Amino acid sequence: MTTPPLALAGPPGRLARLWTWLLPAGTAGLTAAPAAADPAAGRRLAWQAAGALLLAAVCLALLKYLGSSDRTPEFWQAALLRVQAWLTQTTVLSGLGGRLAELGDKRLIGLSWWSFSCFVFYLVIPSVYVRWVIRGKLRDYGLETAGFLRHLPLYAVLFLLVLPFVVGASFDAAFQAKYPFYARAGRSALHFFTWELLYALQFFSLEFFFRGFLLQTLRPAMGLLAIPVMVVPYCMIHFGKPLAEALAAIVAGCILGLLALATRSIWCGALIHTSVAVTMDLLSLGHRGKLGNLFGG
Predict the structure, then answer these.
(1) What is the DSSP string of 215-272?
(2) What per-residue confidence (pLDDT) applies to 241?
């Protein structure tokens, strides 16, 4: 008796029409697993997928226990303070140098450590696995820029669909107390944009990890089943947040996963993630009357 293949080549029924529309020309076999007639290739891809899953588990554990903002090592704090001191004394920066002294608070240093840790564990280490272990090209793992403009309207529609829910939630006092994560982001434009840059780096790294590295490494061995496998840890990193947000992560993970397979890119996913986050922060600051600090001095 022959064991049926695990992988799926594409969605059944009416969903196939949507999938065909999403797929760019020439990528019809993007989600298909390798033919069972080549068991050697199948074993190789299975081992690559297993290695990616184990590496993902290690990276997530290290990020959780070493990369949180409340575990900032002393060497990181000291290094940033030294850089800050040098910048404040640099005449080329003139007036900006003095304002940089305001960014030396412990919370922002901790958040910068968290953002840097996400960059290392979500992007750098997985990139090493892709480039030097399985000998892949990073552009095939979500960094492809071709077709970005073609799919941009689709992501704009997704953002507009999410926007009413974000606006509605922004009137809640708990929402306003939580966002921005960096409480002093509303003090000035410098504070705000420094924080949003750190936030954006985290989102880009996260998208590469889940929709680039993990999804594209599992896809050759598992086909579309790679999406729900990727969504499980993606949902779990939202544990500790409100239930609605954790459940929404399942839906968002599936949608962004489908689009990442269709476009071969994480760029728009990172863009919509960052856009929603910045919008949430701006709405929260607006409700608290702090937007004037950003745009009025």
Answers:
(1) HHHHHHHHBTTHHHHHHHHHHHTTBTB-HHHHHHHHHHHHHHHHHHHHHSBSHHHHHH
(2) 82
Predicted pLDDT at 8? 47
Instruction: Quote the tokens at residue 39.
Output: 């068991």
Task: Please count the residues of the chain.
Answer: 297
Going by the DSSP 8-state scheme, the letter that residue 4 receives in this structure is: P
**Helix or strand or coil: residue 94?**
coil
Residue pair 182/193 in contact by the 8 Å Cβ criterion: no
d(CA 201, CA 195): 10
Residue where the block lists tokens 């750098």: 124
DSSP conformation class of 147: T
Give me the DSSP letters along 10-63. Answer: S--TTHHHHHHHHSPTT-TTTTPPPPTT-HHHHHHHHHHHHHHHHHHHHHHHHH
Residues 6+ apart with CB under 8 A from 253: 210, 227, 230, 231, 234, 235
DSSP annotation of 205: H
Q: What is the CA radius of gyration of the chain?
A: 21
At 130-175, the pLDDT tens digits run 999 999 999 999 998 877 788 788 888 989 999 999 999 899 888 8
Q: At what angle do helices 243-263 and 215-222 cross, to 10 degrees?
A: 70
pTM for the full predicted model: 0.85
